[in-house]
Amino acid sequence: TKRGEDGSSSILHGKYELGRLLGHGTFAKVYHARELQSGGSVAMKVVGKEKVVKVGMTEQIKREIAVMKMVKHPHIVELHEVMASKSKIYFAMELVRGGELFAKISKGRLREDVARAYFQQLISAVDFCHSRGVYHRDLKPENLLVDENGNLKVTDFGLSAFAEHLRQDGLLHTTCGTPAYVAPEVIGKKGYDGSKADLWSCGVILYVLLAGFLPFQDDNIMVMYRKIYRGDFKCPPWFSPEARRLVTKLLDPNPNTRIPTSKVMDSSWFKKSVPTTLVPK
Ligand code: ADP
Ligand code: MG
Question: What pLDDT sits at residue 98?
Answer without folding.
Answer: 93
